[in-house]
Amino acid sequence: MTTVLLPTTHRALDHLLAAEQSAARLPSVVAGLVRDGELVWTGAAGTTGVDTGPGADTQYRVGSITKTFVAAAVLRLVEDGLVALEDPVRAHLPELDTEGVGRVGVGQLLGQAGGVQAETDGPWWERTPGGDWDALLPLLGGSALRHRPGTRFHYSNLGFGVLGELVGRVRGEDWRRVVQAQFLDPLGMTRTTLRPQQPAARGLAVHPWADVVLPEPEHDAGAMAPAGQVWSTVADLARWATVVAGTSTVLRPGTVEAMWEPQSVDDPRGGAWTAGYGLGLQLWNVAGRRHAGHSGSMPGFVAMLRVDVATGDGVVALTNSTTGFGDLPARLLAALTDAEPHRPAPWVPHDVPADVLELVGPWYWGPAPLVVRASAHGFELRGLEGRGRASRFVRAGEGVWRGLDGYYAGELLRPVRTPDGAVGHLDLASFRLTRTPYDPAADVPGGVDPRGWTPLA
Question: Which Gene3D superfamilies match (predicted)?
Answer without folding.
Answer: DD-peptidase/beta-lactamase superfamily (3.40.710.10)
